[in-house]
Amino acid sequence: MAGANFARPSALHRGYSLFWLFIIAWGISVANTVFEDRFRIAAGYVFVFFHSAVFLASFVALSELFALPTKASFAQRVHDDHEIRDHLVNVPHADALISPSRDELNANDNEDEEAEAQSPPTETTPLVGGTPAGTRRTTFATTYRRSISAIINKARSNESDEKQPYEYEQLWSANLPSWLWSLQFLILGPFLVILIGQHGLTLVASVSQTGADGSSLLVPYLMTAFFSIFLLLPITPFTHRVTHHVPMALLTVFIATLVYNLAAPPFSESSRYKIYFQQTVDLDTGATKVHYAGLQEYVQRTIAELPSAAGKEIECTSRGSLRSGLTTCSYDGSDVPPNVVKALPDGIPPQNGFSDWLHFNVTRAKGETKARFEIDAKESRSCAIAFDKPISSFTVNGNQPHERFGAIPEAGLTKIKLYRRDWTTPWKVDVQWEADSAANTGIDGRVLCSWDDVNTPGTIPAYDEGLKYSPTWVALTKLTSGLCEGRKAFKA
């Protein structure tokens, strides 16, 4: 904007910018309406305020043009200025203003007398002696000096009486009211900048950890770029008048923050890194493992601080991770076994009673690819059934899945998550699958149940240990629906 104003300053700069903003705001409003009507996304009310403010500012810009002079009056003024300029061009050189000497005057008189003697008098000969009519010269000190001074005085008086344009803008812009830009700035600037800035900060802060979730980092960067541009749009009609001190100050801030971000650690106690935790238990064998998922560098630094992981072999892999782009590191958690089911007296190792946490029964329909699961877990309301091959349909307690869950994919399902509202009612799940061949009509898999309660210390000691010994810049959260997950295998 400043470069365009330097190359070709225009009094209509604000008007042009506002019309472009109006087109942009109209396009955004159309997209906002489509999202609201087709996708039921009605969070674009910020753009409604933006469109309304741009409309009011554009209306003020159009109304401002009524203060301009008519074409006829402006053309007459320009014509008068040209006449004054033409007369000023005819002002003689300083050397021509020097009066002739007495010898030059005598020589000129002699030349005039000789010319009169050579040419006989005619009807055009003046009664008073001198040069022929039309060639008689007057002195600069009389008529010519008075006419030039009058023209200059008139031009100076016109310049002092009339308003002047701003710097190098067009002459006709002198009649535009200079205070309207402040009204337009009040309409566009403070409210929209505050509203857009708060929304941008909120959204950017809400997606700052999506990289740790394994999501693409393109979304946070695009969101930051969009709101940075959107934040500057309301003040673009006025940026060409901003002095160089403001961008220099912003450049200084940019350099300082860039150096800090490159030199300082990426995470701190006030801005922590999210690492996923889960402890799994094989309820048949009692084997347990502790899993930490995240970026491998920070996960390994976290595990290195845990006493239960000291001297243990750490296995890290990104294959089969529940969150794409992240690495899951696991180690033997037999030193910190979970105790989520309070069914054993104190002093008895919990691994001796793991098998009692989950009970299920699988009944296979004879000669058919159907089976019924009856599942019950102690002190848990959340379980799941994972199948080694997809199933084609299922019912829970005789009821089909609700339509809000969508239709079953053509490829089938490999996992069913179950939830109940009480602690004792068992699940009864009927499933059906397609046979691979005449000789292989069965189905294998695992029944999984999860526990999340860590209000009492010692319920999941591995998680308590992570909270206590992990670095201060680490925040732990659960990897799946449960901090502790127990599983049993089945064959049907």
UniProtKB/TrEMBL annotation:
Residues 103-135 are annotated as: Disordered. InterPro entries: PFF1_C, PFF1_TM. Keywords: Membrane, Transmembrane, Transmembrane helix. Residues 274-484 form the Vacuolar membrane protease C-terminal domain. It comes from Daldinia eschscholtzii. The keyword Acetylation does not apply. The keyword Membrane applies. Residues 1-246 form the Vacuolar membrane protease transmembrane domain. The chain crosses the membrane at residues 16-35, 42-62, 179-197, 218-239, 245-264. This is Vacuolar membrane protease. It holds the Pfam family PFF1_TM.
